[in-house]
Amino acid sequence: MKFLTRQYDFFHANETRPLEHRLKALDLLKTAIKRNESDIVEALSKDLNKSEFEAYTTEIGILYTEIDYVKKHLKKWMKPKRVKTAITHIGSVGKIYPDPYGVTLIIAPWNYPFQLAIAPLIGAIAGGNTAVIKPSELTPHTADIIETMIEQTFIDDFIAVKQGAVEETQALLDHPFDYIFFTGSVGVGKIVMEKASHNLTPITLELGGKSPAIVHEDASLKLAAKRIAWGKFTNAGQTCVAPDYLYVHEHVKDTFLTHLKEAIYELYTDDPMSNAEYTHIVNDKHFDRLLQYLNDGHVIQGGEYDRDNRVIEPTLMTDVQLDSAVMEDEIFGPILPILTYSDIHTIVDDIKKHPKPLALYLFSETEHIQSYVIDNVQFGGGCINDTIFHLATPHLPFGGVGHSGMGSYHGQYSFKAFTHQKSILKQATWFDLPIRYPNAKNGLKWIKKLMK
């Protein structure tokens, strides 16, 4: 891969470090997205049957916001940050320099194939790196438009796109990149982490898991139903932070389910399979996997499917066993298991028995209930009285913990993800502390006084 050698040379020639280069590259990237916007929408429609509305709101518009925010603050982020020094370091100045990693690899998933390829790229550019993008082979039309757009905009010494499947990805991972950013499944994430360990390459892993939603008895039920339906069935549930299963307080279950069914009807009509703007399942393998889950409970809404077009209705299920497959695996589709509870402490204990989720959503108007859940459950991030909206702001870091990932990005956190915080102590020459040396008279005595 000769372009990788050229990227190393390009980076070490300091081409990517100047602020002007980074800002110009971000401008070029935004212009390229705008120029290709209609082609991006068309590609997403071909790959996933995404509507123009969903394509823009979840894949394109969010990138414009991110680029503008990063450009506005980048100069400040790049400045070395002065920090305090210890009393033992009299006369010295401590600074932290955000230092680019170098040549970076971005491996993108298929569920948001454009946004999740370009969002990390914004961080890589802002951090002063070069980048290689590996788009998902499961969304080939989007992969093609990413490659075309990048080739038309940047030299591959700076940013390159490498298409392919498992073999090509493994070949890339065999190279000693300076940083790897991966978005995808837990299983593949483990492989990426193992490969990265061979070269001691730092990584960010954006994974997934079973993200719970909780509707407490004091929730605003109609609004909760609408926001849960939207968060769950956007992209046909193929969202890493979609509510994976739902706990509803037994006192409000019937009323809430009525509102939830109404919300699904309002958002997707009474015939979602004929709705031209309803997203399809990405391929036959995932479609067949999802169909198996329909046997794990009692379907109270939806459940119909169209194999030819890989469409599954928004589906609600009750009477689900906790040890069933639908409650053990990340669903990643338009199926929502619903359980009831009477005591918030019990379900918090249940959630804590499982791997740490990427997201958690709590619907409650009570402050102490909100605090109890936040303080007692470990998860990547989430919302109070909403779903998935937390990932759409550049002011909050987005990322997982434990099985749901490591590291975070968006806004300044993207810049931090793609830079090493290099510590520098600038020592004075006009003064030399004598007790630091082993031959100082009573040196240890004074050191103990200073350092106790």
Automatic annotation (TrEMBL):
GO molecular function: aldehyde dehydrogenase (NAD+) activity
CDD domains for the chain: ALDH_YwdH-P39616
Domain of life: Bacteria
A Pfam family reported for this protein in Swiss-Prot or TrEMBL: Aldedh
A GO cellular component annotation in the UniProt record: cytoplasm
Residues at the active site: E206, C240
One Gene Ontology biological process: aldehyde metabolic process
Gene3D superfamilies, per database record: Aldehyde Dehydrogenase, Chain A, domain 1, Aldehyde Dehydrogenase, Chain A, domain 2
SUPFAM superfamilies (UniProt xref): ALDH-like (SSF53720)
Ranges for domain Aldehyde dehydrogenase: 12-424
Keyword NAD: yes
UniProt keywords, alphabetically: NAD, Oxidoreductase
UniProt record similarity statement: Belongs to the aldehyde dehydrogenase family.
PANTHER family the record matches: ALDEHYDE DEHYDROGENASE (PTHR43570), ALDEHYDE DEHYDROGENASE TYPE III, ISOFORM Q (PTHR43570:SF16)
Protein name: Aldehyde dehydrogenase
Lineage: Bacteria, Bacillati, Bacillota, Bacilli, Bacillales
